[in-house]
Structure formats: C-alpha cells, structure tokens
Amino acid sequence: NSTPPAGSVPPPQPEVPAAPPPIAPGAKDERMWGMFCHLAALAAFIGIPLGNVIGPLVVWLIKREQYPLVNEQGKESLNFQITVAIIAAVGGLLLFCFMLGLIILIPLGIVDLILVIMAAIKTNNGEHYRYPFALRLIK
Fold first, then answer.
1. Which of 21, 78, 88, 123 is deepest in the core (most CB within 10 A)?
2. At what angle do helices 51-63 and 68-97 cross, to 10 degrees?
3. Which long-range contacts (CB under 8 A, 24 or more apart) does 113-117 make?
4. pLDDT at residue 17, as a whole number
5. What angle separates helix 100-124 from helix 27-39, to the nearest 10 degrees?
6. Per-residue pLDDT averaged across 115-122, rounded?
7. CA 42 from centroid of its chain's CA atoms
8. Helix (H/G/I), strand (E/B), else coil: 17
C-alpha cells in the first residue's frame, strides 16, 4: 500500500550538482605557470640571494608571451617582490644600526610567505590576484 493516491504530487528529488565546466585547452597549464610566478618567490626562503625577485622574473620571462595570465601575474609577483626586497634592504640596514631591523624583517618574512601562498592558490584557481601593497614598477 505504498502507492501514492491518484492526483498527488511525487516528492521532490534532490538536485545533483552540475559538473564543473571543462577546462579549456591550455587553461590548466596557464594557471599552473601563473601559480609558479608566485611560488618562485619562495626561492629566497631556501637561501638564494634575491631569489624572491629572480624566481618570478625567470618564470615571467620564459612564459609571458605564451600565456596572458602569466604575463599579468608575473608582473604582479615581480612588483610585490621588488617592494619586499626594498623593505628588506631598509630592515637590513636598520639591523646593523639598531636591532630595530628585526621588528621589520620578521613580520615582513611572515607576510611575504602568507601572501605568496594566497596568490598562488588564487591564481591556480583562475582568479586574478593583486597584492594588497606593492610598488607598480613593471606595467
């Protein structure tokens, strides 16, 4: 007796979420290389002098003409890392004069690491990331 009475409306069926749209050819690679523009800045954390600038510069120079996202995010990463390098140089000078440099360098390293990871994740998701503060030297 589980047959519904005539004229009754059947219960609604749960909606199945739609599959994400397919990735356009090359888009996955473009997002990956855009992400590498940001992650290459972590070269400074493994001891490469000015690696935070050199890493993104190399990726940007190699892939900027092939992928528009890499061109955009490479410039964004470079501008931010140049800004970080300038602030780190000031902090380094203050370190030799006063211990005030530590108050600049430690938070700068932490903020740099966090923002680079955020930028890499957002870029890999296809979003256009802009760092909250950066000198816009490369247009």
1. 123
2. 170
3. 113/42, 113/45, 115/80, 116/38, 116/39, 116/41, 116/42, 116/77
4. 60
5. 170
6. 94
7. 11
8. coil
Q: Give the number of C-alpha atoms closer than 13 A to the C-alpha of residue 36, restricted to the C-beta side.
A: 18
Tell me: the pLDDT tens digits for 70-111?
999 999 999 999 999 999 999 988 887 777 888 888 899 999
- Report how far residue 18's alpha carbon sits from residue 6's, in angstroms, rounded to the nearest whole number: 33
Taking only the tens place, the pLDDT of each residue in 17-71 is 665 555 465 588 999 999 999 999 999 888 888 989 999 999 999 999 999 999 9
Tokens of 97: 């004069």
Block residue for tokens 């190399």: 58
